[in-house]
Amino acid sequence: MNPRGIRALVSKDFTLFFRNRFFALVTSLALIVYVMLYFVMPGSVDETLEIGLYAPGWSPVAGDVQQQGLEIHVAESLEELEDGVADHDYVAGIVLAADLPDELVSGQKPRIDLYFASDTPEEAKEAVSSLIRELIYAQTGQPLVVDFSTQVLPGPDMAGKQIPPRDRMRPLFAVLLIVFETYGLATLITEEIEHRTIQALLVTPVSIKDLFAAKGFTGITLAFGQGALFMVLVGGLNQQPVIVILALLLAALLVTGIGFLIASLARDMMSVLAWGVLALVILVIPSMGTLFPGVITEWVKVIPSYYVVDTVDRVASYGSGWVDIWQNLLILLAFSVAFLLIGMVALRRRFQ
Amino acid sequence: MSVRRVAVLLKRELLQGPKSFIFLWSVVLPIVMSLVLSLVFGTLFSDKPRLGIFDEDASGLVNLARESPSMSTREYGAVNDLEEAVRIGAVDFGIVLPEDFDSLVAEGQHVEVTAYVWGESLAKHRIVAQVTLQDLVRELSGQEAPVDVSINTLGDEVSIPWSDRLLPLLVLMAVFVGGMFLPATSLVTEKQKRTLEALTVTPTTLHEVFLAKGILGFSISLTMGLIILALNQAFGAQPGLLALMLALGAVMAAELGLILGSFAKDMSSLFAVWKSGGILLFGPAIIYLFPEIPQWIGQIFPTYYLVEPVVRISQQGGGWSDIAAHVFVLVGLDVILVAIVALALRRMRRVIA
What is the DSSP string of A169-228? Predict the structure, then answer.
């Protein structure tokens, strides 16, 4: 190993990167845009069904209905109720007439008016209708013969403390920023091959090992730097920062290996793009699992980026610690080292 | 300027184009994305609770649940499968219906149903699933509701289903991926291979080269936009107006592609711009996906003036009077971009000279 040679190569790559102000500017801009997008997205989850109630002379009903996930707003008049519905202050307005209890007791079948905004989806209308019918069944002493014995899986119960959409997007953004650097690194190497500067370098005291070390260091720094900075800015390091940083570092190592592999396969810049898109699409798939739970099967675990996404998500959003996550980190390390070795072997063959 | 030379250059672009990865990418990507987003994400984004049922017998509740508009219902063949589906969040609420459930309910006997709730299921989804199930059980047992529920609607706004919310994203992708990338990558490749210098020593001018590449970008962009609208059955009542909007969008895409191609030094720079600028282009579509985000933010992005008229025409039955202001802004933006393309052309001429 030639530390001076490696330092010189790294310095050359970074100088070239930042000398191209355009390239440097847009790379920074990407980070800013991702951070902005994160902050524009909803920062909380509205998991409450809000309902307006106008029940002159029958106010105890509001207390009977109140439960987690349901919020009753009592309106003072029908106009107030209608305004609340039209302004989307609540999803539905219920009018319980003053003589409703009497009618129920006398065995009549009274009518209950429900008000919805015209853009309320059909499912919400049907759900509120069911809710009101159940309420009246309960009021008239007709309990259901079926009991639901509920068990929360997999636990803990997140009701009331749901993960906001933007925090669900956090692993996706971090992975995107890191994975995009496969292009950067593969491009850097392919350019050297295309311009034949690799051959020129290898006749100097710089060895292939030095070259790998230098390119690897550049790739890891660029990928990790962006991912880590993003996580700092969006509060992704508030919990267990060491684990998140380690996961991002291993992810950077992984994309460096993939970058080497792409550079060994690519003939020119367009080939880098073609292989890069394939890598990008595959590596982004596991992020969909955090965005849309339940849509991805166990097969996703064969994709190395799953272990980055899962680790970042579980640590940053659910507060998992080393005990829960060590296996992920170990598998990620194995994948990263394997890809780095395969990439280096493939690239060495290409150089020779 | 020679029309014949532009035609020859365009023919060359058309013959060489399909061999390149970018050409395939710009044609295949919007179609694949359209199919994936429409078929898969259109249902994933639904705000209904998802109910999973394991039925040990052949309960009529399963069919009632399937027909209920309040929930999406899926049946599982084993309790373990149902538990796993709840555990991973594929369903919000899972119930195990015991044998003879229907007859027990009909006889008014007490039945205990095991229910699993996904830990991350929204509280409102749990309530909706539970009251809907209770309502369906009463319907199954033939119990008559003690009240009549009358539904009254207020206002004239309409709800936007997820399949419609995705349309702007698909249209922008169709118009901008090919329309922008083909001219941009073509210019960058020519710069890198130094074929532009070779061309300009012939009677061909840089102006003609730009025009040929721009026409290619415009044609692909417009074609893909029309294909995506056709695939999504979104032509509405004013197909001519929609085609006009797509054409104006295609002009913008081609102009942006030419500007990008002339300023980008190499492919890395080009994709670095895509990495950040892509989000700026797709900004209005992303904002449209989430009505909770203040919709005025979309107006900051230039592509809003393409997306909004397309939405108004295809989804809201809008006509010329509803989109005229947007059309004028879009034309204005296209004219400004023409001026920037002219500047880029002058700069490139200087660089080559």
Answer: HHHHHHHHHHHTHHHHHHHHHHHHHHTTHHHHHHTTT--HHHHHHHHHHHHHHHHHHHHH
Cis peptide before A154 (omega within 30 of 0): yes
CA distances from A198 to A9, A187, A265, B75 (A): 11, 13, 16, 60
Q: What's the whole-number mean pLDDT along residues A205-211?
A: 83
End-to-end Cα spacing for chain A:
19
Whether the pLDDT of residue A262 is over 70: the answer is yes
Distance of CA A334 to the CA centre of its chain: 24
Identify the structural domains of chain A with CATH numbers, from first to last.
3-42+163-351 (no CATH), 49-139 (3.40.1710.10)
Pairwise CB contact (< 8 Å): A153 & B273? no
> What's the gap in Å between the CA of B278 and the closest CA on chain A?
9
Contacts of B267 in chain A (CB under 8 A): 187, 269-270, 272-273
Which one-letter amino acid corresponds to residue B194? R
Q: Please answer whether residues B94 and B51 qualify as being in contact, where contact means their C-beta atoms are separated by less than 8 angstroms.
A: yes
Residue ranges of E strands in chain B: 50-55, 72-76, 93-97, 111-118, 148-154
B22/A27 CB distance under 8 A: no
pLDDT at A242 over 90: yes
The residue of B50, B107, B124 whose CB has the most chain A CBs within 10 angstroms, and thus the best one to mutate to test that interface, is B124
- CA A123 → CA A47, B70, B264, distances in Å? 16, 4, 50
- Which of A240-254, B7-21, B96-110, B248-262 is predicted with the least confidence, judged by mean pLDDT? B7-21
CB contact under 8 A, B159 and A146: no
Task: Give Cα A9 to chain centroid, integer Å.
Answer: 36
Tokens representing B238? 């004013």
d(CA B347, CA B353): 10
pLDDT value at residue B156:
64
Tell me whether residues A150 and B116 touch, CB distance under 8 A. yes
Neighbouring-strand partners of residue B54: B76, B96
Per the CB < 8 Å rule, is B127 touching A69?
Answer: yes
Percent of chain A with pLDDT over 90: 19
Q: Give the model confidence (pLDDT) of A154-186 as tens digits.
A: 767 777 778 888 888 888 888 888 888 887 788
pLDDT of residue A66: 60
